[in-house]
Amino acid sequence: MSHSAVVSQAGAVSVSIGNERSLRRSVFKNNSISFNSKSWSSSLALNQKTTNVRDAKRYTSRTICMSVQQTSCSKVTVSPIELEDPNDPPLNLYKPKESYTAKIVSVERVVGPKAPGETCHIVIDHDGNLPYWEGQSYGVIPPGENPKKPGAPHNVRLYSIASTRYGDFFDGKTASLCVRRAVYYDPETGKEDPSKNGVCSNFLCDSKPGDKIQITGPSGKVMLLPEKDPKATHIMIATGTGVAPYRGYLRRMFMENVPNRTFGGLAWLFLGVANTDSLLYDDEFTKYLKDHPENFRYDKALSREEKNKKGGKMYVQDKIEEYSDEIFKLLDNGAHIYFCGLKGMMPGIQDTLKRVAEERGESWDLKLSQLRKNKQWHVEVY
Fold this sequence. Notes:
Elements: E1 2-3, H1 20-27, H2 38-48, E2 76-77, E3 100-109, E4 119-125, E5 137-141, E6 157-160, E7 174-180, H3 199-206, E8 212-219, E9 233-239, H4 244-255, E10 256-257, E11 266-273, H5 282-291, E12 296-302, H6 316-322, H7 324-332, E13 336-341, H8 345-359, H9 364-373, E14 377-381
Parallel strand pairs: 2-10, 9-11, 9-13, 11-12, 13-14
Antiparallel strand pairs: 1-6, 3-4, 3-8, 4-7, 5-6, 5-8
Organism: Camelina sativa
EC number: 1.18.1.2
Domain FAD-binding FR-type: 97-225
């Protein structure tokens, strides 16, 4: 999921790491380690290199749920567990003037032939040097010159990370992005105008394994997953690639075997896309629904295939209205609610919530104020 850089938040397999005991003693003393130091990530990466091959070739032989389509594993052992130790999230370890050079591992188209546009799942190898938490974003600096500032690099583009802190290979060395290729069509001719296409999204979707990529970050606190209460309710609302952070949440809840992190609450995902071919990570979400029916709910709004109760297109706000009584009761009981996707989704959702609140004899403005005060309301739109 991409958003403008002006948003400032915004069978089990085991992977061993060198001498874990000495690493834990020397780097993570007394659980007081801070992520916000490059020396930390360098120390961790150095220890990891003792048992892991550095470049992207190490991934080609892996078969442990690496593909976004492969969800046969129930619980996967992750490492390094020291990624759980810091009390605070990593923030801005690398900045635009001192970005980190990572490598592309893979680029995989994740929508069907009838989907409008192309969306890709992109795995990036940061070799353990750019740790992040679920719900954070990476900045990407595409190659080339900024047309508005001759001689200067392009501006940073922010993308929500679509993996857990352990990455798609569960070894803490990769991060994944969900990117829709931005293509511009001339309204008069109907033809594509490459000169106006999205620079960064096309760079990412056209990337090949081994290509270098300049990364900044990680950034963002508003979408961090609150985990103090393992039985909490999380209502996640997304349009399109806005599903990215939720994939990370759900893999952490249902796919990964993280010590002392057993999720026993309710995760409820609402995903709005154009049609069935546009669904993202549907195989993963459907598997969670099958394996964890008491802890996961999954509702889809397919605007070009379904109708709402008024006979119009089915948008995500229509699904919210359908379950509004239940959603409001969950919010009254402390549920967290998240919104991620195009900013155009919010007015319709807000109107729906306001109308439902008034029907219940409540003031939506007061309720929203209370949700924000209680830190139950999480929004990242672009």
